[in-house]
Amino acid sequence: MTQKLIGxxxxxxxxxxxxxxxSETGNAIDVAEQVGREAERRGCPxxxxxxxxxxxxxxxxxxxxVIFVVSTTGQGDAPDSMKGFWRFLLQKNLxxxxxxxxxxxxxxxxxxxxxxxxxxxxxxxxxxxxxGALAIIERGLGDDQHPSGYEGALDPWMSSLWNILYQxxxxxxxxxxxxxxxxxxxxxxxxxxIIYHATNEGLPPLTNATDLKYLEMQVExxxxxxxxxxxxxxxxxxxxxMTKNLRLSRESTGKDVRHFxxxxxSSSIEYEVGDVLEILPGQSSAVVDAFIQRCNLNxxxxxxxxPRDGGNxxxxxxxxxxxxxxxxxxxxxxxxxxxxxxxxxxVMSFFASAEHEKExxxxxxxxxxxxxxxxxxxxxxxTVLEILEDFPSVQMPFEWLVQLVPTLKTRAFSISSCHSxxxxxxxxxxxxxxxRTPYKRERSGLCSSWLxxxxxxxxxxxxxxxxxxxxxxxxxxxxxxLVGPGTGCAPFHGFVEERALQNExxxxxxxxxxxxxxxxxxxxxxxxxxxxxxxxGGVLSEDKGGGFYAAFSRDQPQKVxxxxxxxxxxxxxxxxxxxxxxxxxxxxxxxxxxxxLSAFEDIVSAESGVSKEVASTWIRALEKAGSYHVEAWS
Length: 634
What we know:
- The protein is about 35% helix and about 20% strand.
- The chain has about 625 residues and is of the alpha/beta class.
């Protein structure tokens, strides 16, 4: 009897597939859920999809087959949900055979324009091997720069995964490696269900819409009911009002860079230089209304949203009062800027009543249609509303829309002020994003355009959160080498402001700052500020041991960038590095961080007489010691 029971348990274990993800922006959860759906369609008897912070790593040795889907953020950082998991795996008391018998696969999501491309997936793969786990398949590396995005690597990786898993254990995929189960049986199971309430049922008494407590409650209510909120930050830390909206770049140029100033209106604020401000952007009421009308929804309906299967792993708060449907859409569903994923098109195909629309949607959802879908959808950055208008016969239930419309995410910006210099204020330096798609469609960044459109006289409340960035605040005694071309200068505006305040009471360590822009007379951001602090004994002045050096790339036939100016100051930089200076780099993630890194390696090599390889190792040691910091963005 005991032997039979053990055998049954072993069989059950061998037919379980665990998928664990670590997501920052939502891409990893999309991939994890796609892998889970594909496993179910191939007949896997038991599939679990969990966030890393929902799964205890101590249980890993009990699992037989685990698939990890992990994103890399910033400069090689792990998502917040992975940090505890990773600390556990790094424990020294874990033996090299701790995961013996565990089979695993890793798929990473990253961007090859960053230096530490898919760094987290590579580290996880190596650590699992070190602990004795067996890799089912070579790790997959999704790349945002691929012509088809991360799906360019995901589709072939999954195809190989199913073939290998089936060869290893046919009971795990009872329908075979290529069988795709018809979705008709699955399509009636969205993760969430909508509960409709009588008007104002269960609502506390409404106050004036300008009452900040009421607004705070509305934001928290609505965002706590969203199945796909990843940050976990539902209640705003504070509300801000804009007090200044100043254009920094010349209006005749295509670039629009703004200096924004905000005051806290709901509570006092605290932050340090190098911190980041997250803002919940507003959406156009006209677009929200058009979406609601297109989907035949009642904007005045009062709703709550609950998990369909009784569990709460989606993070949905079931105890909150109802909110109006329009409020929920405005605060949660990005109908005005984000492009949906492939599964959106698959579900749409089941609700298309026109045959030609159904066929096109099915093609888009298939591996064969992947590249065409990428060109139609992501490349053109088509919004949910635009896609629904392109397929007029589709009428999707609101439950599916809640699940599949991209979540309205907060946008993060480097803070460009020093709190000591501006109590109860926070300043930002933002480039208003505008571009043309391959088909010449005009697009603009949701948050930057919204902020640029605001009139400080209107007192629009802005939900905001503060968080630590990648640039830790330096002590006054630390020499600094700062590199911030374009809006990368934003955090260093705060650094210099703070160091100037400190210098009034006691001498501070020197700062060298390298700034870059296209033209001296067009987009030289904060020119007067830098000039003021680089003269008359200011904290950027050469007589203080520092300096301010600007590269204007388009003011001469030969382009000049910050890395060229850095090399020109080789001796001074080496002297500061020898004194224990820290390097801070901020700006575009394209080529700038790697070009700047190469310039510093050249300086170390030339000034100390070592090879480029030794210099590279020396700079890496600076990184590990916390003396080389990078904050880069796409």
